[in-house]
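Notes, p. 3: input format for complexes.
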Amino acid sequence: MPFIQVALPTPLRRLFDYRPVAGEPLPQTGVRVKVPFGHRQLIGLVMGLTETSELSANRIKAALTYLDSQALFSQQHLDFISWVANYYHQPLGEVMQAALPALLRQGQALHPPQEVRWQLTEIGRQTALDDLKRAPRQAALIRTLQASGLAKTQKSLQAEGFTLAMLKGLQSKNLIEIQTLATTKKGIGLPQLATREQLPANVLAEVPLKLTEEQRQVVELLIKEVGGFNPTLLQGVTGSGKTEVYLQLIQHLLEQGKQVLVLIPEIGLTPQTLKRFEKRFNRRVVALHSGMTDKERLTAWRSALEGRAAVVLGTRSAIYTPLPKLGLIIVDEEHDSSFKQQDGVRYQARDLAVLRAKQEAIPVLLGSATPSLESLAKAKAGAYRWLYLKQRPGADVQVPEPKLLDIRNRHLTGGFSEPLFRAMDKHLKEQNQVLVLLNRRGFAPVLMCTSCGWIAGCLQCDARMTWHREPPKLHCHHCDQQQPLPTHCPQCLEGELKPLGAGTERAEETLQERYPEIPVIRLDRDSVKNRNDLASKLEQIASQRPAILLGTQMLAKGHHFPDVTLATLLNADHGLYSSDPRAMERTAQLIIQVAGRAGRAEKPGEVIIQTHHSDDPRLEKLCVKGYEALALDLLEERQKINWPPYAYLAMLRAEAPKSEQVEQFMSQLAEQANLLNQEGIALLGPVPAPMERRQGRYHMQFLLHDNKRAPLHRLAANLLLWLETSPEARRVRWSLDIDPEDL
Ligand code: ADP
Ligand code: ZN
Ligand code: ZN
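Output follows (743 residues plus zinc ion):
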């Protein structure tokens, strides 16, 4: 008798052997199984069978039950997930868990249990009610069933007052039976069995737009190569019709009966995006994102697994969705940082999209107005095909060039300079909308005492508390600590407390004071808590003119605001001189996104970027020459300093409540790394994390750097072996991040 090998959600990076469930046929690979594990029971996935085990046979426990009658993951999909676990050095069982909807992780059945229905047997149908005179309730039950001629659910019968005991009694007399497929008789009524869906022959539910010449060329080229692995970077300015290109490409795949996976950023998936896809196709389009209930997720996931969902539109973790007929993967806004999972099982969904496409020999399309340096480097090297959309279809209105407005030595009111106000006056007077982007929530990022200089800091973090007005409080955006607003300075007891800088609440107040007649529509995480809030804000935006749209990133992504003619970024400086090597890239992407909001439709637009560094050559290049020119410069810099995407990184992080604990551990780690380092990997650190104290814990990091991937991964793997067995490592919380993005 072979043993079954099970992937279990434990930190141990190995499979576990069990004896098969007694009296059941051997399980297929890819089904869930419940097993005893220490004092607990765990749910894992069967990865295969083995004749031999390292454990002696009498120490191997028996599995308890199989939870699926059919595999949830095909062999190919299991291979993909095993690859992910290997590459990121994560336990397979935990990657598996990340790939399963919560309800399946918890052991729920893939299909909701069928309702129990009772029907008459042949005898029951011919029984005269007189024969049951002495059992009037039973007679009544038979009468009910005879009268309707249909099977009835147990629930409805119980609601009519028939008990389970009565049903069982009649069953033992062979008068009624539980309806199953085998006992369903013609004319007695069919149970609700999943019938094969009849799909309309025409994939299209609406007439698609007529493509521009530029779009048509892209679609034709991509259709021609739909048969194999073909990574493409589609660099298209905002509003150039990338989504329309996706839709027409998807149409082609759906006509061949294929499924398509579309990955979108966390906040890019709005009800409108979903509607736009649903409206186009006579096929099932499902969403997969964190805002859904567990039940909704399971339903969507199941329809993907069963091949009924033709298009899956999902955020990061949707990359793990099983799709038996997958024919194409699209990653929209591929530069977006939400594709990187930053904790638990860390992965980069964009990279996995390319990998999965390669394994399945299908094309993958990465779309963005501001591609990541990673993808640009691949395109430049010829590893990805590089296509452009440079025009906006329809009107002659093109993306306006951003103008830098220097605010050095200028008086700011709630973050706004006088010249900016004057520009806004003009656009509002023309009955248009103005979009103001400010990437800071709350009233003010700093609360300070004017006489002694005290600043409200977080007790848990090396961070300042943000002052919020509604409701009034101090709030740390890093650890979520909240405190009531102090009434006086806790240090000198007498100074006046004043806000420094502006968040969206303060900007809103400033705008309401200056433009009392004009609606200010604010979108940030405090004012938009769910999809309904978002829908109602978007509705306001669609119906009010003039208006000011004020918000964080939320406002810069994915929406079409045809009446916005002025878009402005209140402060471009947050990322400019940061220690994060990606800061400039991110700032540039944000500026271009903001610019993309202005001057859609028929109206020419204007874009104003406030900064203290208008002479920064990188900003100038971005505004005058555009994103690609700047990005290519940044790439050159990266190449010079031998940094990703031209080199590889792995980050080891550790944290502990006491700084000595983490320091001591990190120096041991560094020592080990030096010992194990046979291949000359550069070891950087250990150093304190950019925010050393966070949530009351001390954080440090240690970076491995090399221009080859394989030796770097070998060292990481060896270090992991040490980490997993050394007692020192148990005293801290540590993690390994392959291809880290936050340094
Ligand atoms: P992107 O995804 O690049 O931002 P979209 O596909 O959303 O661009 O297109 C931007 C706008 O242009 C949308 O309102 C869309 O309906 C319109 N559009 C796209 N392609 C065409 C076309 N070929 N003809 C007319 N309008 C188009
Ligand atoms: Zn003070
Ligand atoms: Zn904090």
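The first helix runs from residue 75 to 87.
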